[in-house]
Write a structure and sequence with these properties.
This protein is mainly beta. It has a single domain, classed as Methylamine Dehydrogenase, Chain H, CATH 2.130.10.10. 4% of the residues lie in helices and 42% in strands.
């Protein structure tokens, strides 16, 4: 899953905890071949034993064929406490591993599922931190290490001074990129489609704004692109970077640098070298929903908060009401592709594009219940443009007990 989720409720540490919160998102046994794993949809489900990982075959329209079947229990009692949640489920580019970013009251850790061997383990071990993105091509991922857990925690030169880690999902070994600030100051980082560059943002703390940087994937040629302060001096937190498939543009969000976590945000786009940055439209803020490029790199699907002005939704994630918007990046025209009026569901999220960039598959649901999970249903929406009301059609039955979708 691309950093999209059914529910988000994450924090890290004091002032930077809020930055992590607002820029994280929440929402069969052995594989026969690595390529076949791409033909499945993955889920975290609620069960009496805690959270379990499950999957269902994926149909041509991007919806599951049948109900999810259990693979493994995540273990360690994860999911037996109401505050436990899952922020991210993402399949590695080579189809060999599945990353599950889990949130507990003491911090975040990444469960790594080995698809071929049907095994699961914390990766990297003995560290609190969170998954950011897979690097293209294999099974190395970008990871923000936060705190060591005991004497077996991996160190760099015998001391704990991490920046941004590249972690091997198979071994847990890592390469530390020195970003010249503590890892707690890292807001977000995302690799280019060819894996040669990484865009990232940092912030010294709540109320102090953020800075955007670009570097080579080995950490060399670190270049400061811009600061988040605008001409009026208003500061924002910048993150949720999303590279266009052709590698020429980067979409991102600017969220008010405020202790109120779920204020609306601005959706922006820039050239891949940081130039020509400009505003596109208003988007939901703080729930971690990543803007998603169409395969032809001309449009973005994003989440629109539809109850702006409802103060409870500024604070409580479960009060969110949202729709799926689409914006034409070149013209700036934006329109709603799917909303509560069409699905009769409070949350319309997790958009994925069809290969021809003509329609979107998404899930619609009401907020999940921490004890029994959620009940998402898959829908499909045509992307016809602002002149016509899109056609929205249900394409799956309701799926029970879902905590997160991959």
């Amino acid at each position: 899953m691309r950093r999209t989720s059914l529910f988000i409720g994450s924090g890290i540490v004091l002032a930077v905890a809020m930055l992590a919160l607002i820029l994280q998102g929440m929402f069969y046994a052995h594989s026969q071949s690595r390529s076949s794993t791409r033909d499945y949809l993955y889920y975290t489900l609620e069960s009496p034993q805690g959270f379990v990982l499950a999957r269902a075959p994926k149909g041509a329209n991007g919806a599951p064929v049948g109900m999810p079947q259990t693979l493994v229990t995540l273990g360690g009692g994860f999911g037996q406490v109401a505050s436990d949640s899952v922020a991210t489920i993402q399949l590695s580019p080579d189809g060999a591993y599945l990353a599950i970013d889990g949130i507990r009251d003491h911090g975040e850790q990444v469960w790594m599922y080995d698809i071929q061997h049907n095994t699961i383990a914390l990766q990297p071990p003995y560290v609190l931190g969170n998954f950011l993105h897979w690097m293209p091509g294999g099974h190395t991922f970008l990871y923000r290490p936060m705190l060591p857990l005991g004497p077996q925690a991996p160190m760099d030169g015998g001391s704990w001074n991490p920046g941004l880690w590249l972690v091997n999902a198979a071994t847990g070994t890592h390469f530390n990129i020195d970003i010249h600030v503590p890892s707690a100051a890292l807001v977000d980082a995302a690799p280019s489609p060819d894996g040669t560059r990484i865009v990232y943002s940092t912030s010294p703390g709540l109320g102090l704004g953020s800075d955007v940087w670009l570097m080579n994937s080995d950490g060399n040629a670190q270049t400061h692109l811009f600061s988040s302060a605008n001409t009026e001096g208003t500061r924002t937190i910048i993150g949720l970077f999303s590279w266009s498939p052709d590698g020429t543009q980067i979409a991102y969000e600017r969220l008010a640098d405020s202790s109120t976590p779920f204020l609306p945000a601005g959706l922006w786009v820039m050239q891949s070298n940081g130039s020509q940055s400009h505003y596109l439209t208003e988007t939901d803020g703080g729930h971690g929903y990543l803007p998603v490029w169409s395969p032809d790199s001309t449009k973005l699907a994003y989440i629109v908060r539809t109850n702006v002005g409802y103060r409870s939704a500024d604070i409580l994630a479960q009060s969110l009401r949202c729709a799926i918007g689409v914006v034409d990046v070149h013209s700036g025209s934006a329109w709603l592709a799917a909303s509560q009026q069409q699905t009769n569901m409070q949350l319309n999220i997790n958009p994925t594009w069809t290969a021809n960039s003509a329609s979107i598959t998404f899930t619609a649901l009401n907020p999940i219940n921490a004890r029994v999970g959620g009940t998402p249903r898959y829908w499909q929406a045509s992307v016809t443009g602002p002149q016509r009301m899109p056609t929205v059609t249900p394409i799956s039955p309701v799926i029970p007990h879902v905590i997160a979708v991959g």
